[in-house]
Amino acid sequence: MRSFIITFSLLLGVAHAGDRTDAYNLICKPMTFELERNDCISKIRNYSHFDNRALGICKAVTFDSNKISCLGIIGDKAYEVWDMDTCVNEPFESRKLDCLQEFGTIYTPDRHSCVPRDEAITQLSYSLKDLRAGNLGSTDQRLSKLLEKFTDCNR
């Protein structure tokens, strides 16, 4: 009963944010040992956002202590689809966690979508062709949109 009261009191702060609740339900709740579950809840309380796709990677990690570390890596970070594709395809858990650490940007609710590398290369190639053909208006418009997306990505 005492453990239930402790867990419930720690969850009061968690229950108000959907992302925290998802993190609790996916990662902390299934933990076998109360001490690790409480450590997990404490880790969750440090952040307000958890990317759902990244939570899936954390959930798949073998050891509870590594799951808790994973929460610290992904907390308050947003990941693009291509980041997740890269991390999911890593062959080892340790490499997946390193990948999550390397990728992602600070989460902001009004953040615009960033440009994937392949799309940026394509847009730059088209801009170069337009420039060589003398289509300065098209080049200017394409590069301005691309620059805007990169600027939004790093805010």
Structural overview:
This protein is mostly helical and 155 residues long. It has 2 domains: 2-106, no CATH class; 117-153. The chain has 9 helices and 2 strands. The chain has helices at residues 2-11, 18-28, 34-44, 52-60, 64-74, 81-88, 93-102, 117-132, 136-153, and strands spanning 77-78, 105-106. A two-stranded antiparallel ribbon has the order 1-2.
Major β-sheet profile: 2 strands, antiparallel
Separation of the first and last Cα atoms: 46 Å
- Total DSSP E strands: 2
Overall average pLDDT: 81
Task: Give the amount of beta strand, in percent.
Answer: under 5%
Q: Report the principal-axis shape.
A: elongated
Number of helices: 9
* Oligomerization category of the chains in this entry: single chain
Q: Provide the structure class.
A: mainly alpha
Order of helices and strands: HHHHHEHHEHH
In short:
This protein is mainly alpha-helical.
What key phrases describe this protein's structure?
155 residues, mainly alpha, 2 domains, disordered N terminus
